[in-house]
Structure formats: structure tokens, C-alpha cells
Amino acid sequence: MAVPMVFVGKTFNSYSELTSFVSQYELFQRQKFWKRSSRKISSTPNIKRFINPELIYYEITYSCIHGGEKYKSRSKGLRKSISFRFEAPCNAFIKLRASREGDCLEIKSFNEEHNHDFSQTRWNVAQIEALIDQYKKHPVLYNPNHEDYDNNELKKHSLCNIVEALQAVRSGVTEIEIIAQWNNLIAKYTNEKTNDTNEECHSWYAQKLDFLDHQIDPSVKFEEIFDSDGSRSPEIQIKEEIPDSPPPPKRPRDDGGN
Fold first, then answer.
1. d(CA 47, CA 44)
2. Does the pTM exceed 0.90?
3. pLDDT in tens, 137-150
């Protein structure tokens, strides 16, 4: 496989081609990127020139999963609580826009410098379960009605406790890695809960996260945590880090204790 190179002027003839490149680039860089901001072609009625419909997006910016601005929120509850950050964000990004001819997406600018270690192994089921269990013990991090919800020092202390507790299942885990994984997990769960089909959540971790249900406002979509201009999109590119199936059931012990 050719080395996936990023440079200004590099083009992609379709959104599918772009996402395939991003996946290869993530593997090569050992980093994860998410769609930090975007604007679809359908949202640009004032642009009269032809734009290839296979591009889907007029412009799009991918950021390192450890990066991004401190999120703004117009909503209440869960979306506000998960925007909490403690460490300096990573500034690595790739920004693309439809070319002047409108036939491809073109890289306009980028930054490949990361301010953190290269990516670790993916989170497994046991680690994600431990993450959920630990967050549940610290409602100050997610419950806006908590009496100390605005106490950042207490939030910092709670997060440090989670980092310490998770060392047993994921050695070397950091605050920023925990926050990124939690945000990804909640993004998926929230979008399931606020879908328009009224279907039940079928993700294996849904039951473990039901303690958050009273925080979710079904009238507000998850992307509203990202910015008030409505252009942010939470399609985080680490969705494969959440295993598709739950851990196998434990075998009951027989009378002999075997």
C-alpha cells in the first residue's frame, strides 16, 4: 500500500475516496481523526457553480481526536457536560474544500504536528465497561443539576480518580484519551437515543449508559455541542474503537467449584 501523503492541492474525486484515504492515513499515522466541521453541498444554495454531487460536502475539516476548540453549547444537560476539557488540545488537522471547478475535494491546508504520543491500542470491551462504571461514580462530570457541577477543581479531581482506576485495565491511559473515548461513546449513544425512528438502542453498552437518559433532550441533536453556527458534525472517525458485540457471558460454576 502506498504511503498516504497529505499536501496542499491533493484532490479526491468523491467523498468515498476521501474517507478511504483518511482511514489509510489514520493507520499510517497511528492517530485517529474526526469530522470536526463540515458544510454539505445541499447547505450551500448560494453557490451557483456546478459541484460534483459525489463529493457530498462543500467543505470539511478533520481534526485529531485529541484536538479541537473548547466546545460551545446552546443546549443543556449531557451535551454541556461532555465538553469539559483539561489538557491543551492537539492542533493537527486537514481542511478540504470543493475545487474551483467543482469536480473534486481539495486539501486547502493542514497541520501534521501532534502534541501527544502516537496512538495506543484500541479500547476493548472490558476497558469501555470500566470507563462507564467509573464515570457513573462521578455525577459531577455529567449531571448539570449536581450541586458542584460548576466546580472545575472537583471535576479535575474526579477525572484524576478515573485515570487512576483505569490503570488496572488500561495501563498508561491519560486524561485526554479518557475524555476522547467518553465523548465518542456518548456521541454514539446520544444519536441512537435521539433518532427519529423511536427504535430501541441495540448497542451492547446501551443498558450500562441508561443512567444518562434523563440528561438527553431528544429535541436537540448531538452536533449542537460543537458550535452555534450549526456547521459542526460529530462523525468521529474512531467508531470502530467501540466493539460491536458485548463480552461473552460468564460460565456459571458447577457444584464442584470448577
1. 6
2. no
3. 999 988 888 899 88
